Amino acid sequence: MAWSAAKYFLELLLPAMVSLGALLWVSVQVSRSAYDRQLWLVLGCAGAGATEYMLAWLEHGSGSKPVVLLAQNLSMITFQFLLLCFLLYPTSARSWTPIRRQFAVFLVASVLLTVFWATTERPLRGSAYTATFSADFPSPSMRLFQLTGYLYAWYAVLIALRAAWKYARISRRRSSSFGLRIISVALGGKCIGAAGRTFSIVAGWLHYPTSELFNTIAGSVLWISQTGFLVGVVYPSIADRVRATRRWFEHQCAYHRLEPLWTALHNVYPQTMLHQVPRSKMRHLLFWQSMHRRYYRRVIECRDGLVYISPYLPRPSQGANEPVVRTAEQWAVALHAALSAVSNHYPPVGGAMPVASPASPDLDSDAAELVALSRALAHIDESRDQIRPRS
User: Which domain holds residue 44?
Assistant: First the structure.
């Protein structure tokens, strides 16, 4: 009982859940890039894979139904065909001949599946794959029906495997390359599983039935490979989203750490404030890019404020140039003195000068220097508050 429940979960329920999850994920991506043809092909693959497993789940739950078996096999070869279209699309952008050729093979396989299913005796049209492995199975047309599906799957997977491995080697994006490698391994497993199922059908036809263990292994390899393929399809998007989420949290932390510096500069130079995005917390939570805009705006405003206050920074000695390298603590002490000078309306002591210049010209390096300066300035303010006598 426990083994049958575990087998049902692993072979039907888990792949169906993964397929539906992949379908929903790719649907969201398509809604954002509606003109990406390759993304539509991925959506078709995910839809065909989800349909295949949902039909298998329906057949398992309601008993053997002939129409469900036909639809399941058509969904399987549709999945293989759309996979080929997706992998052959980059090489056929100028010539559609490879895709036309694959469509002709797919059309022949679909017609043969329908014809063999229609010519099978009605009581046997819903026969499972394992029934055709028996040497005593009475319907040759049902054997041909099952054999056609697996032969086409074996043919399509071989071509797809070669293309996927090729693109995995030349892909520049690490997430795409790794996703294509997962797809390649999954396709290799599907090829082995389809070959095992084909061998079982032919061996049963020739009165040399294979063992139950062999058939179980072949079926397990197929569903594991199908699940692995769907994981490979959604992996690049998930990896990019994880990377984007990590960057969002980094910007959020930097945004809050810049607050002491930004507040100090904004109090004396409010004109550095850029155009404000509506301060709606709900809008901030619903729109993913809101934090990035706030982060970039705060970095720019802090840098503008430092340009304004730099003439008031104390110089080491009369006529001496400011040192190129200073620690954040030294800059914070100088900035605190400059803020006091501006508040007391003292005249500037020199011209504009670079403050806390980053080692590299990119904005994140600039933000890192500003964050260090902000934390040092906040530490000075806290120290002065602690030693200030209470009235």
Answer: 2-241
Q: Is 89 exposed, middle or buried (0-12, 13-18, 19+ CB in 10 A)?
A: middle
Residue ranges with strand state E in the chain: none
Helix (H, G, I), strand (E, B) or coil at 274: coil
Q: Verify that 236 and 135 share a domain, yes or no.
A: yes
Count of structural domains, the chain: 2
Residues 134-166: pLDDT tens digits? 878 888 899 899 899 889 988 988 888 888 888
> Would you call 170 exposed, middle or buried from its count of C-beta atoms within 10 A (0-12, 13-18, 19+)?
exposed
Flag whether 249 is in a domain.
Answer: no
Closest by CA to 353, choosing from 319, 315, 385, 389, is 315
Name the phi and psi angles at 320, rounded to 5: -85, 145
Angle at 335 between CA 329 and CA 339, to 5 degrees: 145
Whole-number pLDDT of residue 115: 95
Whether residue 165 contacts residue 236, with contact meaning beta carbons closer than 8 Å, is answered with no
Q: Tell whether 14 and 125 lie within a shared domain.
A: yes
Q: What is the pTM of this model?
A: 0.68
Residue 357's contacts (CB-CB under 8 Å, 6 or more residues apart) are 324, 369
Q: What is the rounded (10 degree) CA torsion for 59, 61, 62, 67?
A: -10
CB 300 within 8 A of CB 274: yes
Task: Tell me the C-alpha distance between 32 and 29, whole Å.
Answer: 5
Strands of 4-85 (E only): list them.
none
Are 215 and 279 members of one domain? no
pLDDT tens for 171-201 read 878 888 888 899 889 889 988 988 888 888 8
Residues 163, 126 share a domain:
yes
